[in-house]
């Protein structure tokens, strides 16, 4: 299984939804709070080219935007991986 990193901010419904999805799928992931960690923010920007969370990185693929848009892409990447 590829490495999974989830970049989040506090009180973010979409971030929580991605965490629930990954948990439901049994996928271990590393969560990085980009509001509390400037290095995580810089890393997220470098990997995904955006400044807004949530960003889900699976292997080398980065997904961002609202949960409903990320969900099918996350599931497809997990099934391929």
From TrEMBL:
Family annotation (Gene3D superfamilies): Glutaredoxin (3.40.30.10)
Pfam families: Glutaredoxin
Signal peptide annotation: none
Domain Glutaredoxin stretches: 4-61
PROSITE patterns attached to this UniProt entry: GLUTAREDOXIN_2
Record-linked InterPro entries: Glutaredoxin, Grx-like_ET, Thioredoxin-like_sf
Protein's UniProt name: Glutaredoxin domain-containing protein
């Amino acid at each position: 299984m590829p490495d999974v990193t989830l970049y989040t901010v506090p009180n973010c419904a979409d971030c929580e939804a991605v965490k629930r999805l990954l948990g439901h799928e049994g996928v271990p992931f590393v969560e990085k709070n980009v509001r509390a960690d400037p290095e995580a923010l810089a890393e997220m920007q470098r990997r995904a080219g955006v400044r807004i969370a949530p960003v889900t990185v699976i292997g080398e693929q980065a997904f961002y935007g609202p949960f409903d848009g990320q969900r099918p892409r996350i599931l497809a990447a997990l099934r391929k991986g």
